[in-house]
Amino acid sequence: MTASQQPAPMQPTAAPPARTLEAVLARVLQAGTYLSMALIAIGTVLFLAAGGSPLDAGPSLDVGRIASDVLALRPAGFLWLGVLAVLATPMLRVLGALVGFARGGEWRMVGVAAAIVIVVAIGIAAGLLTG
Amino acid sequence: MEVGLLMLVGGVAAGLFGSLLGLGGGLLIVPLLSIGFGVPLREAVGVSLVCVIVTSSASAGVFLERRQARLRLGMILELFTATGAIAGGLLAFLLDERMLAGLFAAVLLYVAFTMVRRGTRAEESEPELSTGHGPLAGTRNVPLGLVGSVAAGIVSALLGVGGGIVKVPVMHLIMGVPLRVATATSNLMIGITASASAFVYVLRGGIDVAAVGPTAVGVFIGATIGSQYGGKVGQRLLRWLFVGVLLFTAFEMTRRALAL
Question: Does A86 touch chain B (CB under 8 A)?
């Protein structure tokens, strides 16, 4: 039977899931960093090319305008999207870890990851309420 | 344009040292911006927090892959650092700038003193950390470590430093984690610690993206270079670089606090 002739694994599957999880999270962090840095670099070049100085007060955050600013190649859109991507990257790492722990049945660590998400959400709420 | 390039170069230097020392670079970014470029201190802290997250994410990826950072230990501690960071983020807007500078100097001096005093003894004979079972395997004084983590979060948010200056000594000196592992794990934790308070700063209008741009790009370049060499720099050199940076920054911040 051809099915029985499928190449069998040379070794028993000894690799712990944790190793894979850490490699995946490393990729999440790296991808988030490259993406946010690319956005901030583009925004900075556009900002400086338009005669802006880093010591001037920069554009303030207007979440509703980010998409249109990016499409119109305005520096504010790239800079703010980049900054928000920077802030979101560690959160993505925590969410990724949460999923990984759940798959591995590490329920105590799932609780820790969920608690971190809640704490950061409280921080966002506190910023919105006092801002 | 020149100012932008100077900020970029300063960012490269801060990112390089931050990554090598597990500090997130904030210790250098805040003085760079506030003393070097005259940016108001609280604004410099906001910019620094963004840069510190970049440093953390860039180098933590490498440290995770190398198994140098302990993911589970870091996540347990960062639950406490993030809680402290939010408290600190709110507190930062209530404090006077000179008081912030004074706090900055005091924290730096304290950590430098601790590192020098305990320095040479454990240096040559650091035991390999047991990677046994459980996220807290091979650690001691866990409750004190958790309290120290909350303090690290508050300091991070107040001073824009990522909190590595507190987290590394807490893990190394209190919890018995080897310095190299403590540095790598601190690097991982800095991201979520700083982003918890950075959200507070962003939503309160405390982050200036014009200054973030060149500084963050520079820090990223420096951190990328630094993370490639982090495991290759000797313990002794690492420790004395750490102390040297602390003392220099403490001196500058004291001058600011006293308005000299």
Answer: yes
Would you call B4 an interface residue with chain A, using a CB distance cutoff of 8 Å?
yes
Q: Which tens digit of pLDDT belongs to each residue from B172-217?
A: 888 988 888 888 898 889 899 999 889 888 988 888 888 999 999 9
- Polymer length in residues for chain B: 260
Distance CA B245, CA A9 (A): 51
Residue B197's closest chain A neighbor by CA?
A: A123
DSSP state of B173: I
Report, as ranges of residue numbers, the positions in chain B whose pLDDT lies below 50.
122-125
Place of tokens 């966002």: A124
Cβ under 8 Å to A: B residues 78-97: 78-79, 82-83, 85-86, 89-90, 93
Cβ separation B3–A53 shorter than 8 A: yes
- For the whole model, what pTM was predicted? 0.84
pLDDT value for B24? 57
DSSP string, A85-101: HHHHHHHHHHHHHHHHH
